[in-house]
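Sequence, please.
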């Protein structure tokens, strides 16, 4: 299990869902080490129960849109293998934020770490109707779109276009824009 303590595991078995606190940020609002976040994603994405992430500590000067996209991308990486679809309004602290209204559908594969041998924290995950990207690193990451996608702002990415992710950011992309 994630925690590994016998009492915690026994009590957890009685729960319908699991909430993980301080998933993206430490208690003082700082970014966690990449190794901890990688361990979180690897463990939580295999969880058979619905997973909710609760991050109540933010960087001191938060850009709400960036923080919402980052934590939403982390949440998308953590969908368990048996989840059939996202329920954005219930699954994340930022549920009222427009990024969480993107209907990505069911996960098609486990999250994929980019260059795990390098110890970095860059992840992607395919969904029935989209793609989630997570850059939990202090440097930017550029990814080439493999199809046509839109972000929550309506920005369109055509095939082979660069999707730029600044340091400590995430992106949820959908394959069909709602009109």
């Amino acid at each position: 299990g994630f925690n590994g303590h016998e009492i915690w595991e026994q009590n957890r078995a009685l729960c319908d869902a699991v909430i993980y606190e301080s998933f993206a940020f430490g208690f003082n609002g700082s970014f966690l080490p990449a190794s901890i976040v990688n361990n979180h994603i690897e463990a939580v994405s295999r969880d058979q129960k619905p997973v909710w992430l609760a991050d109540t500590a933010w960087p001191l000067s938060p850009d709400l849109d960036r923080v919402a996209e980052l934590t939403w991308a982390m949440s998308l990486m953590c969908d368990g293998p048996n989840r059939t679809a996202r329920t954005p309004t219930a699954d994340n602290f930022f549920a009222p934020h427009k990024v969480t209204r993107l209907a990505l559908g069911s996960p098609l594969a486990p999250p994929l770490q980019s260059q795990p041998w390098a110890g970095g924290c860059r992840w992607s995950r395919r969904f029935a109707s989209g793609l989630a990207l997570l850059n939990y690193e202090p440097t930017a990451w550029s990814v080439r779109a493999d199809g046509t996608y839109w972000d929550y702002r309506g920005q369109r990415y055509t095939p082979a276009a660069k999707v730029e992710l600044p340091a400590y950011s995430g992106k949820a992309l959908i394959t069909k824009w709602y009109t």
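Residues 64-77 form the longest helix (14 residues).
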